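hey all, quick one before standup. I had two proteins in the batch that finished overnight and I want to keep them in one place so we stop losing track of which output belongs to which input. First protein below, input sequence then structure tokens straight from the run.
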Amino acid sequence: MPASVLFALSASLLALVVLVLVLRPVWREARRPAAVLGVAALAACLALYRLVGTPAALQTSRVAPPATMDDAVAQLRSALARDPKQVEGWRLLGRAYASREQWALSRDASARAAALAPDDPDVLVEAAEASALADPQRRFDARAVALLEHALELQPAQQRARWFLGIARRQAGKPAEAASTWEPLLAQVEPSTAGALREQINAARKDAGLAPLAAPASRALQVRVQLDPHFAARARLRPDASVFVIARVPDGPPMPVAVEKHTFDELPFTATLDDSDGPMPMRKLSAVQDVELVARLSASGNAMRQEGDIESTPVRVRLPADHAVELTIGGSSR
């Protein structure tokens, strides 16, 4: 089968799968508008492909763009019947069946992909998940467990493989093994996810007669900010000035990992910096080992440093910190 044929079918089917998932809630409420929206979106996808893609590939393959999910699935099945060694084709077919909740067909298609790519962790995990979804009780059978174990042998950091394998061991009445399987995930996931994961681990440990995991050390930072009295006596300070408490990576980019804004009349005050104070979702206080702390008195109220702003002496801290850090604006800090 020419590569252009599989590409054309895969692109069309993928667009349809995405449309099914996105429009499903709309379809339940208003079928006609959803259908119109779906047709319009698919037409836009095809038009965009003709503008920036390779229309000649479609012409030479002589594959008519599928109008419905049924057409797309039928065309992909036909293409795979002619050339059954296309791993990505079987993976996409499995996802298409899953989007329609045809679990048994999804399982079989994903199993074909796994047979063709026995050392691809992502393919193995997809096949194991499809197998569990096809089971009336959503259980991972021995074959699915073997796929997950092999995926972790190939890629120990494969999070979905580790999560599913823990579920499988929990289902098998092996709570201690489930807990030990999940525990490495705590160092990989976001702090917001780690809390729920820790609860699952401790529930498994309790069933196994084991003590719960020790509570994680807090990554929050207590920062006490004050104004040097001698500096305040000789300087003309505006009562409407703002005070910024900033944590940034030492010798790193200027964008802080945590920042709080306070008013001048709050001085002295104690600020608690944590992940909720991060200006960027992908840069969190809990993800760094060392921070540099500084307090800035700003007449403009702008978080970016301006001429005339007054800062405390920066203090470098290793996390987690077991004591409050003191910052003195206009004087020495510690």
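OK second protein, same deal, sequence then tokens:
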Amino acid sequence: MRGPAAKRVRAWTSGLAAMLLAAIARAGIPVFSYEIVHTYPHDSAAFTEGLFYLDGYLYESTGLEQHSTIRKVRLETGAVLAQVELPPQYFGEGIVNWGSHLLSLTWKSEVGFVWDLRSFKQLRQFSYRGEGWALTQDGHHVIMSDGTPRLRWLDPQTLAEIGHVDVSLNGKPVSRINELEWVEGEIYANVWETNWILRIDPSTGQVVGLINLAGLLPASDQRGGIDSVLNGIAYDKKGSRLFVTGKNWPKLFEIRLVRAGEVLQ
């Protein structure tokens, strides 16, 4: 991305950072940094859009038209154990498991897919209005982001929208809510094109904590240009392990959150 578009992105990111700093100063919202517990290999050709952990394996979706896939990945090695390609016209987005199924979104096509979790056989399609960005679930509902401040609650059987909350920070809406993960009663949400993950109260949409992952991927490992941003959160509930990665990142990190004394950047 170059020229005016790149300038708009930088301006938006700077504006978000200013809002976060102001919110921290006014409301004392807790800010967390991180410690790296373990580093795992990750396919640097994977334009990561969705990620979750289940029964010892990672499930990952990748984006871009003609290159979108859904994969089952061995955590320890990054090896792809099973994979299905989306039809070439679709830009793959978020994924989540529900029972014996895997659900996936596409970006602008307003089409989602239901897959068999074991075989990756496509079972059916479903539709929604607007863009599809990310999915997670709380054990009762499927939760969807669409790039706006709104998080949609979906019926896991019909995938119809049955409710929503709007994400806010000190009363101000936060847009570009992207990759989602349900973590111990909170929704963790990456804000696209930033190093920030929001900790969101699902009952109100209010941001109750901020995670700053600046510097997580060393500059020497940044291979994909301006689009190689943080995007991928997975949680191992049994092991209390938090994993993060990004688009075209050669590494996936297990991290531990640490209460920060100051914002890193």
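Flagging for whoever picks this up: Confidence is low (pLDDT under 50) at residues 1-11. The domain at 3-259 is CATH 2.40.128.630 (Lipocalin).
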